[in-house]
Amino acid sequence: MKRIGKMMLSLILFGVLLFGSAMAAFAEGGEAVLDENKLYARSAVLMDADSGRILYEKDGHKKMPMASTTKIMTCILTLESGKTEEIAEVSSHAASMPKVHLGMRAGERYRIKDLLYSLMLESHNDSAVAIAEHVGGSVEGFAEMMNQKAAELGCKDTFFITPNGLDAQKEIPGEEGSVTVEHSTTAADLARIMSYCIVNSPQRDDFLEITRTPSHSFSNLKVKEGGEAVSGGRKFSCNNHNAFLSMMEGALSGKTGFTGKAGYCYVGSLKREDKTFVVALLACGWPNNKTYKWSDTRKLMEYGLSSFEKKDFSKLPVNQGCLKDIPVSMAATDYLFASAGTGVEISDKTPAPVLLLKKGEEIEVSYKVEKHLFAPVEKGQVVGKIEYRLGEELFWERELVARDSWKKINFAYFIRQVYRAYFS
Predict the structure, then answer these.
(1) Residues paired with residue 279 on neighbouring β-strands, in sequence order
(2) Do the Cβ atoms of 238 and 223 come closer than 8 Å?
(3) How many domains does the chain have?
(4) pTM
(5) pLDDT single digits (tens) 110-141
(6) Where are the alpha helices (DSSP H) in 252-375?
(7) Euclidean distance between CA atoms 53 and 142, whole angstroms
(8) Is there a domain that residue 20 lies in?
C-alpha cells in the first residue's frame, strides 16, 4: 500500500509540474505547437490570405496532383470572363465525363451560372468541361487560360491540363525532346490561388456567394425562336458538401477533391476579425480516410488563430538618429565657403504592409542613407531607404529623400561672392 501511495503521489506531482510548465509557457506568450507528424496530409500550407505569406508548411512546394481543388481556378476564371449569363451547349465530350457528374446530355443547353453551382457544390466533372469549352473555345484553350492566370498570380509550380482535376498527363516539346508533365500544383500555389479568389479577385463576392450556397436548383434550357430561354424540362438540385463551412466560426469557402492518384485534397479559408487564413492540403489520406482533411484543416486553422497577430508596419517607430542632415559639398551658399546640408524625410510610394506575425517574431529594420552629397541637390531627390525584413525576405522599402535643394557653384557664383565680399 505504501508503494502504491508513493506511486500515486509521484503521478500527482508529475501532473502538477506538467500543468505548471504548460501554464508558464502560456503566460510567457507561448502558442499552440503544431507537430507536422500529427498531420495526415503529405503536403500542407497555412497562408495569410491578405499578404500571401506562408505561415506554416509541410512539403508545401512539392508538386502533386490536386484533383477537384482545380475547380476553384475554373470557377474564378469563368466569373471574370463575364459570360455567366450566357448559355452553353453541351458537347458529346462534356457529356462523356465520368462520375461525379451532373448527367447532362449532348446537345442540351445550360446557363453558365447554373453550371458553376454544379461545379462547386457537387464537383460535377461534365459541368467543368462544358464551362471550359464555352469560355475557352475548347478544353485546351481554357487550360491555357488557367495556366496564364496561375503565372500571373505567381504560381511557379502549377500546370493545368483539365478544368475538372481528373488525373492527366501531357507531352510538352522541349529543346532536348518532349517532357511529360502532369496536371499538378503545390499546396503553396493552391493556397495562393484560393487567396486570390477570396481577397483580390474583382469577382470575389460572386465566388464566395457560389461556394457558400447550401443548395441550388435549376433546369436545362430550351431557346425559343425569339431567343427567349425557358426550362427544358429536366430539373437538378445541387447541395454543398463542404463540411468545413459548419465546423468553425468564420469559415468562408472551400473545395474538396479526390482521385485515386491525388488522394483526398482540400483547400479552405476562414476569417475572424482581422485575420484571414487559407489552408491547402494535398494527399490527405485515401479511402476510408475521408475525414482526415477536416481534422488537418481544423488543426492548422486553430494554430493560425492562436499563434499569429496582425502587425501594421506603418506603426513601427522610426529611428530619427539614422535620419541626420547630410552635408552637401560644392553648394552655392549665401556666403563663400559656408557649409551646406540637407534634411532627410520619408517619402512613402508603397503602402505599408499589414502581416500576420508569429508571437515573438521580429521585423528587422535597416537604414541606408548617403553620408555625403555633391551639389546640385534637388528637393525630393532619393538619398537612401529604409528596409523592413522578416528573415531574408524584404517586405517593405521606404524611400528617403532630400528636404532641401542646392545649386552647384560655378564661375559666375565665385565672381558674385568675391565682389560681395570685397566691394559691397
Answers:
(1) 46, 268
(2) no
(3) 2
(4) 0.84
(5) 999 999 999 999 999 999 999 999 999 999 99
(6) 292-307
(7) 29
(8) no
Residue appearing with cell numbers 457537387 = 122
Are 97 and 164 part of one and the same domain?
A: yes
Cα–Cα distance measured from residue 17 to residue 10, given in angstroms and rounded to the nearest whole number: 10
Q: Whose CA is closest to 47, among 304, 364, 277, 256? A: 277
Same-domain pairing of 151 and 233? yes
Q: How far apart are CA 351 and CA 361, in angstroms?
A: 21
Q: Provide the sign of the torsion angle of the four alpha carbons 240, 245, 250, 253, taken in this order.
A: negative
- C-alpha distances in angstroms, 231 versus 101, 114, 369? 20, 13, 70
The burial of 70, by beta-carbon neighbours within 10 Å (0-12 exposed, 13-18 middle, 19 or more buried), is given as buried
d(CA 351, CA 41): 36
Query: In this structure, are residues 278 and 194 in contact, taking their beta carbons and an 8 Å threshold?
Result: yes
Residue 328 falls in which region: left (phi positive, over 0), alpha (psi -120 to 50) or beta: beta
Query: How many whole angstroms separate alpha carbon 301 and alpha carbon 44?
Result: 12
In a domain, 13, yes or no: no
Identify the domain containing residue 95 by its residue range.
Answer: 37-308
CB 36 within 8 A of CB 58: yes
Within a domain: 3: no
Is the same domain home to 156 and 60?
yes
**DSSP strand pairing (87-89 vs 109-111):** antiparallel
What digits encode the pLDDT tens for the residues 252-293?
999 999 999 999 999 999 999 899 999 999 999 999 999 999
Q: Is residue 2 part of a domain?
A: no
Q: In sequence order, which residues have a C-beta less than 8 Å from that of residue 144 and are 6 or more positions away?
A: 136
Q: Is the peptide bond before 288 cis (omega within 30 degrees of 0)?
A: yes
